[in-house]
Amino acid sequence: MPSIYFDFGFYLLVAALITGVVTLLDKFWWQKKRVEAGTVKYDEKGNEKYPGLIDICRSFFPIIFVVLLLRSFLYEPYRIPSGSMNPGLYDGDFILVNKFAYGIRLPAFNTKLIDISEPQRGDVIVFHPPHEPQQAYIKRLIGVPGDRIEWDRGTLTIIPQCTDATTTNGQGCDPITIQSEFVSDKVEDLVPQGEYFDTYQESINDNSHDLIYVSNGVSTGRVNSLDDRWTEVVPEGKYFAMGDNRDGSQDSRAWGFIHEEAIIGKAAYKWLFVTFTDEPVLFGKHLPKGISFSRAGVIN
């Protein structure tokens, strides 16, 4: 049975259904009853004055319906909630998620209706994680179904599953080696505790992006990524993802694989950056204290 995700899209869908049903019932049933009963009232311009609830539903239904279509099938706004994708994305970045990149999905249920393309290694994706299905996470896609992933102290080797089709097309069978290359012992100013990290770079599918790792000699109380070794095999229908902040990200290394049905879309654009108060100000919430469009651009 498909999961129901109780996010903003769910409540938009419920609101669209309620206002839409009321609007249709009034148009094809209740309005005729008012005319027959002679209870129709008009304003000074000669327009019918609808009863309170009906007036609200008829006024808001077109707006809610358009927002639902845009948000469900085109682009959905999303706020980066943590530093797990530093240095490319910061806590406070607002982005747009391409909802049609991998297919058209049913709102609230996320069931795919029309297949468009498959997620590719290196894509930055937004999804519902298996351990917190009502939340939305953002990570970089590393492994697709069938991949064998081998991590050896900063060197990532992906061995794709080889089938007759991929052999015939000459694609998908050769191991992919991705080496994290040291760039600098400095990181971007907005990375929290940046003095403990070094900047690296890697390229997946000709897409280069920056990463950060804990610097040599800094203890985190656990094995740092550049000292770690592990192997995973991605099951069919599942995906493996990691944060670009390799030592500051809870991802597939911790909570397992991402279900294909849980993928929301592809992170496409940064459009706004907001800084928040250090301490809660109102009802335990941090309030915005600065807004900038300087970080707007395509997400790599």
Q: Would you kindly provide a written description of the structure presented here, covering whatever features stand out?
A:
The chain has helices spanning about 10-35, 50-75, 165-170, 250-255; strands spanning about 40, 50, 75-80, 95-100, 105, 110-115, 125, 135-145, 150, 155-160, 175-180, 180-185, 195-205, 205-215, 230-235, 240, 260, 265-275, 290, 295-300. It folds into 2 domains: about 10-75, no CATH class; about 75-300, Umud Fragment, subunit A (Ribbon), CATH 2.10.109. It is of the alpha+beta class. The protein is built from 4 helices and 20 strands. It is elongated. The strands form 5 sheets. Strands 3, 4, 7, 8, 16, 17, 18, 19 and 20 form a 9-stranded antiparallel beta sheet that branches. Its EC number is 3.4.21.89. It is a multi-pass membrane protein. It is an enzyme of class 3 (hydrolase). It catalyses: Cleavage of hydrophobic, N-terminal signal or leader sequences from secreted and periplasmic proteins. Keywords: Hydrolase, Membrane, Protease, Transmembrane, Transmembrane helix.
Q: How would a crystallographer describe the biggest sheet? A: 9 strands, antiparallel
Quick one: overall form? elongated
Could you name the CATH homologous superfamily of the largest domain?
A: Umud Fragment, subunit A
The beta-strand count equals: 20
- How many helices? The count is 4
CATH top level label of the largest domain: Mainly Beta
Q: Approximately how much helix is present in the residues?
A: 10-25%
- Taking pLDDT < 50 over at least 5 consecutive residues as the criterion, the unreliable ranges are none
Task: Indicate the radius of gyration in whole angstroms.
Answer: 24 Å
CATH topology of the largest domain: Umud Fragment, subunit A
Structure classification: alpha+beta
Beta-strand content estimate: 25-35%
Would you tell me the overall average pLDDT?
Answer: 93
Number of domains as seen in the coordinates: 2
Query: Based on the structure given, which CATH architecture of the largest domain is correct?
Result: Ribbon
Write the element-wise H/E pattern from the N-terminal end onward.
HEEHEEEEEEEEHEEEEEEHEEEE
Question: Termini, distance in Å?
Answer: 35 Å
Enzyme class: hydrolase
Transmembrane segments: 9-30, 50-70
Protein name: Signal peptidase I
Family: Belongs to the peptidase S26 family.
